């Protein structure tokens, strides 16, 4: 879907922001670019929608060389979410989101309907929020409006630059989870820049770790990155993997055991099969029980025991 081939950017003052980067992002995949400050993440992102022109290399989007594309046309097909959201302060929330459909020539009524749908999608009840102004919303709510607006053109590709950067850690965690869930539904191709390795590991299907001088140090799934960091620098940056592995390892039915033999008194609350091992352990600790029930929607699937947790961890670290 997105392919970077030998892409480099040297600024006029001689700063090498990105060095001969090769990177592929598959359709529907969420890739996080992560690394220390100044290592070229934002420059890379902005080269994809040509806010910055590369000095070398080629970028392909769905088979089309973006360096040949009209930048304005190109950007309409690519949603862009930035930390400083850029909402128009004197326009109501619905008008902020309607801007894009109106630009596409939709009637006001259709644009408003679409804006309300999108607000609903990002968890902002239109009846409550559509008529408010940006300053009447919290940071996290404004961030959601930014996401709704980026989705308004229904672009297949979303570029996000520190999209959850401006909010406190609790709201940030909630927005990350919500966006991950939304992404599972929408199946966009997403490239997300963050300096936060936890965010990258939690959100990304794959993670590109950048090193100083705009070099790609490793490009791997979160599990691979934690289990096999490419070098000492990546290992340092990623930090100790054991605990993080719990966050990225999802439950699967083969980790479960049938309910038979477990007395219901031993069973605390049930968690969803989409949960992570971390969620499962948290439920066991909370209920002070050695097993936790697992369901898919209303259907009870089985129980997870410490042996199941161990099996799942071993598979994930293989
Ligand atoms: N317009 C510019 N002119 C010269 N150098 C620049 C310009 N923009 C960025 N740089 C430099 O290019 C390098 C990469 O910058 P970039 O913004 O891509 O990094 P980043 O990884 O996104 O950093 P951060 O996490 O701090 O946002 C940095 O050394 C930066 O100082």
From TrEMBL:
Pfam families: ABC_tran. Transmembrane segments: none annotated. Gene3D superfamilies: P-loop containing nucleotide triphosphate hydrolases. Residues 2-238 form the ABC transporter domain. It comes from the Bacteria. Keywords: ATP-binding, Nucleotide-binding, Transport. One of its GO terms (molecular function) is ATP binding. Belongs to the ABC transporter superfamily. This is ATP-binding cassette domain-containing protein. It comes from Nocardioides pini.
